Amino acid sequence: MQVNTIRNNWTFEEIEAIYNRPLLQLIYEAATVHRQWHDPERIQVCTLLSIKTGGCPEDCAYCGQAARYQTGITVKALMKKDDVVAIARRARESGSSRFCMAAAWREVKDNRDFDRVLEMVTEVAALGLEVCCTLGMLTENQAEKLKQAGLYAYNHNLDSSAEYYEQIITTRTYDDRLHTLDHVRNAGISVCCGGIIGLGETRANRIQMLHTLSTLPEHPESVPVNALARVEGTPLGANAKTDTWEMVRMIATARMLMPRAMIRLSAGRAEMSEFEQAFCFMAGANSIFTNENGELLVTPNPGVGQDREMMRVLGLKASNSNNAYIG
Ligand code: SAM
Ligand code: DTB
Ligand code: SF4
After folding, report:
1. Which residues are catalytic?
2. Distances (CA, A) of 84 to 113, 154, 162, 212, 317
C-alpha cells in the first residue's frame, strides 16, 4: 500500500487490517512508507532526564514514580537549573539533538518550581537543542508560558485506548489528557504523544489507541511507542515481558498511519537485543532515548556507548527531527 498523503480519517477497520497483516508484509509496507517520508539511515537520539523524580500523587499502574507503590526508588526534588543545563550540553556533545525533561508531577502548578523549569527551557533551547518537557497536565496559560520560554515540544501520552484507560489510571480521565494536548497544540508547541503496550490490553485496545492518535485534527509530530518497563512494587510489575513482535506491529502501523511523524522506540529497549531493535527501525522507528546514566527515568536503558555501537553496526547516523545529519 502506498501512503502518499496525510489522512486523519482512518477507520478502526482499516487500522485493524494493517495491524493484522502477515508480519513480514507489514514490515515491508511500513519500510516502504518510511522511505517515502524519511531518510532510513538517520535516527534522532533524544536525551531524557528526570528533573524531578518520584513521589507522584497519581496512580498510573505502570509507573515506578507513583508515591503509593513501594518501588524503592530515590525521590528527588526538582534539580537545579545549572545542573540540568550542564547535562544538556554534554548530551548535545554526545550526539543528541533533542533534550526531554521529565517531572513526576500530576500537573504543573504556577509556583517557583515552574518558573525554574521555564528558565531551564530557555537555556537548553539556547544550546540549539530541541527542548521537550513532560510535566503532566497543563492549562492553556502554562502552555503559552512554555512556548514563550522557547519550548519546542511537549510530551503527553495517551498511554492506552480510551476503553482500557480506567483499568490503568483512576486519578485522571482520558479527556483530561486530550485537553492538555489541545492546550499544547493551541500554543503552537510540537506535540509528542504516544503510548505503552504490555499493560494487559488487547490488540483491539492497541488499535483503538492508534485510531485516536491518527484521527486527531493534526497528527502528533512525535509518537513514542513504549513497551512496559516492569517495575517491582507496581500493580503491573509481574506482567509478562512484552512480545517484541507486537512492538514491531505497533511501530509499523503507526508509521503507515502517521507517515510524517517521528516514531520513537522508547521504553523497553533494555530488554531487546540489537536484532529486535533493528526490526523496530526497519518497521519505521526513527528515534531512541538515551541518558548518560544508562537509565530512562527510573528503569534501565542501554548505555550511550552501547547505542553508539548499535548505530555503527546498523549503519545509522544521528539526526534531528528534520532528519538533517548532525555530525
Ligand atoms: N508525570 C507526567 C505524565 O505522566 O504525564 C510526565 C512523566 S511520565 C513518566 C511520561 C510517560 O512515560 C507516561 O505517560 C508513560 O507513557 C511513560 N511511562 C511511565 N512509566 C513507564 C513504564 N514503566 N513503562 C513504559 N512507559 C512508561
Ligand atoms: C515516553 O513516552 N517514554 C519516555 C518519555 N516519554 C518520557 C519515558 C519512559 C519511562 C520509562 C520508565 C521509567 O524509566 O520510569
Ligand atoms: Fe505520575 Fe507521570 Fe508516573 Fe503517572 S506516569 S504516576 S503522572 S510520574
Report:
1. 56, 60, 63, 100, 132, 192, 264
2. 14, 17, 35, 34, 26
User: Which pLDDT does position 325 carry in this prediction?
Assistant: 59
Give domain status of residue 14, yes or no. Answer: no
From the number of C-beta atoms within 10 Å of its C-beta (0-12, 13-18, 19+), residue 137 rates as middle
Domain-located, residue 12 = no
CATH code, domain carrying 140:
3.20.20.70
Q: Tens of pLDDT along 158-173?
A: 999 999 999 999 999 9
Cα–Cα distance, 231 to 198 (Å, whole number): 13
Q: What is the mean pLDDT of residues 231-252?
A: 98
Question: CB count, 10 Å around CB of 45?
Answer: 24
Residues framing ligand 2 (Cβ under 6 A): 48, 64, 100, 102, 134, 155, 157, 194, 224, 226, 229, 266-267, 289, 296-299
How many domains in the chain? Answer: 1
Q: Which residue has the higher pLDDT, 115 or 322?
A: 115
307 in any annotated domain: no
| CA-proximal residue: ligand 2, atom 1 (nearest) | 224
pLDDT given for residue 4 in this prediction: 67
pLDDT tens for each residue of 54-89: 999 999 999 999 999 999 999 999 999 999 999 999
DSSP string, 82-120: HHHHHHHHHHHHTT--EEEEEE--SB--SSHHHHHHHHH
Across the range 184-211, mean pLDDT stands at: 98
**Angstrom distance (rounded) from CA 180 to CA 268:** 26
Domain holding 289, by residue range, is: 24-299
Please name the residue that has the C-alpha cell 504556577. 110
Amino acid at 311: M
